[in-house]
Amino acid sequence: MAECGASGSGSSGDSLDKSITLPPDEIFRNLENAKRFAIDIGGSLTKLAYFSTVQHKVAKVRSFDHSGKDTEQDHEPPYEISVQEEVTARLHFVKFENTYIEACLDFIKDHLVNTETKVIQATGGGAFVYQKDADPEFRFQTNHPNIFPYLLVNIGSGVSIVKVETEDRFEWIGGSSIGGGTFWGLGALLTKTKKFDELLHLASRGQHANVDMLVQDIYGGAHQTLGLSGNLIASSFGKSATADREFSREDMAKSLLHMISNDIGQLACLYAKLHCLDRVYFGGFFIRGHPATMRTITYSINFFSKGEVQALFLRHEGYLGAIGAFLKGAEQDNPNQYSWGENYAGSSGLMSSSPELCPTQRARSGTFDLLEMDRLERPLVNLPLLLDPSSYVPDTVDLTDDALARKYWLTCFEEALDGVVKRAVASQPGSTDAAERAEKFRQKYWNKLQTLRQQPFAYGTLTVRSLLDTREHCLNEFSFPDPYSKVKQKDNGVALKCFQRVIRSLDALGWEERQLALVKGLLAGNVFDWGAKAVSDVLESDPQFGFEEAKRKLQERPWLVDSYSKWLQRLKGPPHKCALIFADNSGVDVILGVFPFVRELLCRGTEVILACNSGPALNDVTYSESLIVAERIAAMDPIVHSALREERLLLMQTGSSSPCLDLSRLDKGLAVLVRERGADLVVIEGMGRAVHTNYHAALRCESLKLAVIKNSWLAERLGGRLFSVIFKYEVPAE
């Protein structure tokens, strides 16, 4: 723990208000490796952004030299695994009340070490750049996605309204002095509450109708003849002038929140209509993800625009200024060469203090909001084959809205936690502190799950994908980069020994019989998913469970979703030009399921792009592992060998390290290749990629989505049973 306090005279109460006790590991994380700072100083809240380098462990695979050896008799693993240190970049964002700004800056200054340059970029009411031992200067930067034009309404202490037409053409068109600072200031006078989030908490428990005068209070039942809702606010705080009683702090806070939110919503709507814009993005820490605030602003926009203008909100809206200031200082780093992804392990949820802080620290440190972004060393773009990228939603079910599914999946992930901890420890048998780190992982992920039980929206849209990704981020946080590396190594070795036998049996079949066998092989391979408890229990209790046993587990035709006859008929026509296949699991899945299917497509004259994860997730095959697997298969099979040599079979990385698949964030190199080769078939396999995500994804070409449902609850919800089969062949409408 590190004490951070502001010096000076004053009472002990003043001292408490001006000081904070901060655990540097949880608030200003990785400060010793910080390189650049940016600060957005508003009238009420300060937002800090800084860039740091992060050293973490990664699992690397390297092929053994098998020249001259009989791979059928070779008992060595197919490759060796080593754990190496890798340095990546991370962006940190921290928000705190201005009360603490002096103490926080002193804390940062005292903990800066091992850096060549310390630059603080700042924006706010007046944007200035602070560089150590230099005079300040002004800098500005904007960086928005291609969603133009729109209105940006930033609600800080006051309100600033900007019309944005392109990435570099925008105009400040208006504003208001009535904003978040007004809510805070008047709220403090009315309720004697000094903290911003405490005001929001009071408002969340209040009933504004006890203080506000409504239309029905004036007109009674006659309001209906006027075409007005009786619940409309006719006069904010209207009852306080005539009522001979005290009003609760909660009711006054709620009335104040509604008054200011309605005013901002109406103002934004008027500006949007004046400039012929139909989208308004709201940012600034007044919003704070507070449902009542967003609901009131949305209602106001809809009411005054008659539904013609849409109100949109940003999850981390309060960091817009800090991000803009930071980007200006990062121009020399060629930002177009990489992408950023949120690190859920280091981000706090909306409307919550960091769950890792104990209650005493929360009370003492006030409200701190944390966001961390990891730099991905490649640009990520849309799959060119998406029918409409603007309407594409990766996830099949939104757990934020689906309470029943949310309760099930949160419980499911909680119950799986012991097994994940056990697997993490087992993956590092030579480590003396693996058990300790695994327990820290358990506690961190458990805390995230509890936050989500109380606030499902805390980390954005809650989905099975986000739960899986958060778990992977937390594992990485405590240096468990690939808990399944040894499992994958063993499974790949076993499956490679079976490859030639499987190919011989397939080649012995007639054409039509072979097509069904290939599909069943794909499905049987997909059973081998260590992320599914029903499967991992079988694999741990029965080491002899193999490819043939998995085939017998499959549902008999007709399958739960069965387009196989339509697919077979298509295969009787001309070959596809190029197939893009997203692989799932290591071992039996990729070697005995995917590669025989790939081989058949190659024989038909179809080029194949096989896309695998860039980084590890569960027992999913990674790009680096797929290269070695393909090399070993090519040594056994002349068809695969010649296809690799002639570049008719290309192995690519997706840019992802997730068990699921977001087709709007793919490695740019993969997207370019898909376009160049004219891919006209997309194959997505696995529950994570084809059911939890992309089940409803619409593409501009033919697609195959196939998976085995390895979760009883999900199977029942879909109308099937455990090991039911999804085989969904889709052709775009003409």
From TrEMBL:
EC class name: hydrolase
Cofactor requirement: Ni(2+); Mn(2+)
GO annotation terms (biological process): coenzyme A biosynthetic process
UniProt-annotated location(s): Cytoplasm
Free-text activity regulation comment from the record: Activity is strongly promoted by Co(2+), Ni(2+), Mg(2+) and Mn(2+). Activity is inhibited by EDTA.
Pfam families: ARMT1-like_dom, Fumble
Keyword field: Acetylation, ATP-binding, Coenzyme A biosynthesis, Cytoplasm, Hydrolase, Manganese, Metal-binding, Nickel, Nitration, Nucleotide-binding, Phosphoprotein
Keyword field contains Iron-sulfur: no
Its EC number(s): 3.1.3.-
Family: Belongs to the type II pantothenate kinase family. In the N-terminal section; belongs to the type II pantothenate kinase family.
Subunit comment: Homodimer. Interacts with PKM.
Function according to Swiss-Prot or TrEMBL: Phosphatase which shows a preference for 4'-phosphopantetheine and its oxidatively damaged forms (sulfonate or S-sulfonate), providing strong indirect evidence that the phosphatase activity pre-empts damage in the coenzyme A (CoA) pathway. Hydrolyzing excess 4'-phosphopantetheine could constitute a directed overflow mechanism to prevent its oxidation to the S-sulfonate, sulfonate, or other forms. Hydrolyzing 4'-phosphopantetheine sulfonate or S-sulfonate would forestall their conversion to inactive forms of CoA and acyl carrier protein.
Alphabetized NCBIfam families for the sequence: panK_eukar (TIGR00555)
Protein name: 4'-phosphopantetheine phosphatase
Organism in which the protein naturally occurs: Catagonus wagneri (Chacoan peccary)
